Structures are given as structure tokens and as C-alpha cells.
Amino acid sequence: MWNEKMATRAKCREIDPDALFVQGAAQNRAKLICRGCPVRTQCLAEALDGRIEFGVWGGMTERERRALLRRRKDVTSWHELLTSAERRYERERSGQEVVVAARS
């Protein structure tokens, strides 16, 4: 599902790729790069569906992804699950904004 269009929108395109393939405490710094990335969900789905073993992808380390894969063996498409959840969240969030605006 990952494609060149998504890659051009990724926040990490502006940094040295090696910054995402680190160990220890450096992984927490690498995860900060993913915050607010417009393609974070798609990136994480790509790593989970592709069983990518190394690096920070979509704000998760390899250890975090392995743990998630072990807990959710039932998931057949992370892309489908994560993008569906993201759309649902956006709909709910936009609905709440309308309610808040109406109350003001």
C-alpha cells in the first residue's frame, strides 16, 4: 500500500534515514519524528503487514510492533484495520467539533 506519493508526504523524508534505525533510548527520539506525520497510519500498516523487523515505522519500534503482532494474531490486514479506525476517529472528532461549536 505504501507508495511514492505517501513517501513525499512523510515527515521522515527530511531526515537521515539512519535516524530511524537506532537502538535503545535513541528509539524514543526517533518515534518523536513520527508525531503529526500525515502518513503515520499508512506507514505503521505497511510495517505490520510486511512484518518489517527493523527501525521505527509509524511511531512504533520493532519491539512494540512484535508485541502488537503477537497480541493481535487475528488481524489479516493492518492497513484495512488502521485506516478504518483512523476514518472513524476523524468522523467522531469532526462531529464533536460541530457539537462544541453549536454550544458556543
UniProtKB/TrEMBL annotation:
PANTHER family membership: TRANSCRIPTIONAL REGULATOR WHIB4, TRANSCRIPTIONAL REGULATOR WHID-RELATED
Protein name: Transcriptional regulator WhiB
Entry keyword set: 4Fe-4S, Cytoplasm, Disulfide bond, DNA-binding, Iron, Iron-sulfur, Metal-binding, Transcription, Transcription regulation
Species classification: Bacteria, Bacillati, Actinomycetota, Actinomycetes, Streptosporangiales
PTM info: The Fe-S cluster can be nitrosylated by nitric oxide (NO).
Cofactor, free-text remark: Binds 1 [4Fe-4S] cluster per subunit. Following nitrosylation of the [4Fe-4S] cluster binds 1 [4Fe-8(NO)] cluster per subunit.
GO (cellular component) term, any one: cytoplasm
Binding site for [4Fe-4S] cluster: 12, 34, 37, 43
Entry's Gene Ontology BP terms: cell redox homeostasis; negative regulation of DNA-templated transcription
Sequence similarity: Belongs to the WhiB family.
Keyword Iron-sulfur: yes
Location of this chain's protein in the cell: Cytoplasm
PROSITE patterns cross-referenced by the UniProt entry: 4FE4S_WBL
Known role: Acts as a transcriptional regulator. Probably redox-responsive. The apo- but not holo-form probably binds DNA.
Every 4Fe-4S Wbl-type domain range: 11-67
Required cofactor names: [4Fe-4S] cluster
Domain of life: Bacteria
MF-aspect GO terms: 4 iron, 4 sulfur cluster binding; dinitrosyl-iron complex binding; DNA binding; metal ion binding; protein-disulfide reductase [NAD(P)H] activity
Pfam families hit by this protein: Whib
